[in-house]
Predict the 3D structure of the following.
Amino acid sequence: MIDPYAAVNVSKSMQDDVTFRTRLALDDTFAQNVYAAMCNHEFVSTPPVFVWECSWRTAGGHVANLRNQYGDHSENYMTWYCSGVIGRLDDDGCETGYVAEGTVTDTVREAFLALGWNIM
């Protein structure tokens, strides 16, 4: 039996939106912040209501897959996994803009709202 709701998820929404997926592919900090927001949160769609969540590993995989598909990247989930813990400084000791897993920046919250998803 085909699940009619299987296609309703955050990853599909990110993929289907050209502006979102382009920014994700081009902006490393935005990509990391999206990954961080996907960790430890439920996403609730605006009507009809669906709830979606994923693990840290799956969040990293979604971000990497979209960046590989729409950008010039060769990433996997490990590119992003724990990036909020270990990736806050670059090689020169400068802030990267990366945030801890579970952190939702205003920019990312607004981007997901534009896709029809509230981050809880």
